[in-house]
Amino acid sequence: MQLASADYNRNRCLLHLNAIYCLQRVLGLSLDQFQLFPSFSFLFLLVSSPYNALLSLNPKRKVLFLLLFLNYWSIFVVLSIFCVLEKMTIAIEQPQIASKENVDEGFLVPDANAFGNTFRDYNAETERRKTVGEFYKTNHIHQTYDFVTEMREKYGKLDRTEMSIWESIELLNSFVDESDPDLDEPQIEHLLQTAEAIRKDYPDEDWLHLTGLIHDLGKVLLHSSFGELPQWAVVGDTFPVGCAYDESNVHFKYFKENTDYNNPKYNTKFGVYSEGCGLENVLMSWGHDDYMYLVAKENKTTLPSAALFIIRYHSFYPLHKHGAYQYLLNEEDKENLKWLHVFNKYDLYSKSKVRIDVEKVKPYYLSLIEKYFPAKLKW
Ligand SMILES: [Fe+2]
Ligand SMILES: [Fe+2]
What we know:
With 379 residues, the chain is an all-alpha fold. It has 15 helices and two strands. A two-stranded antiparallel sheet has the order 1-2. The relative contact order is 0.12. This is Inositol oxygenase.
């Protein structure tokens, strides 16, 4: 009778745990939420009949009952280990964001850029100010819906050359970005500063380190073997074309000279798009972001979708800095945007005078390139 009761109680524990686990899977609860369940179930067990019965048991039966509880906790420990392992697996397939507090502690945001001004200050009195202003005037006038369609068609063929990721870094190293009021270093410095700063704060997210390293490689469009595109068609903040320009765009006033500005097909809030259509379906002004996205995607990178989103929209400041154009996002965009916010801090604020020993870190990045990309890519 006593053993039958013990079996009954143990089976009850097992059934209870199985039920909790099934519930978690069916409801699609997060693992954090799920980890609360063993605590609830323990409380449940305390107030349920076996515990009430404990009070009236003789000492021998009490020992047996305690053994049952130990049995319960061993299952709990096994389930917890399972949860941790499952969490690690998910981190590889779909990156989870670390808490912002931890990140802010790790990365110290500098006060000034390479010119001694605050970052992204387009009015600061510097030798770059006039150049940057002129740059945006040309950019805003020429980035039309038709121009973007034509460039995507032309460069999307990826029939210009074949080279490895590291070769493209070396190719890029001879340029300075005219649109950037914060940077006067060769590009390799900026790429490695970004990647290394991320690596310091997110040591386990190797995909994000590599994203930092490659996010600007689309700037090879400036090179003669890529048609030597003018800077206004390669760099600078990006924005959707085919719908009204948001006023949060830097130097918004110059859009008034863009032919799309007065075209009723393109100048309404949604233009040729619909609410929540997803950025995937939106044409962005042409530049290194979209081009590098095409290169990575068409060469079958195994980087996660958050990495591709970062590469494609890292210059979309109206969205990730000002929160504009939210009505175009779908659910996946909203998830990926969280990672873009993490990334942007490193992209923007690592443009300082921190020097990186290229030869020292190169082997690490070569191993990441090998992990996520083919040896040669079509460009
Ligand atoms: Fe960029
Ligand atoms: Fe960058």
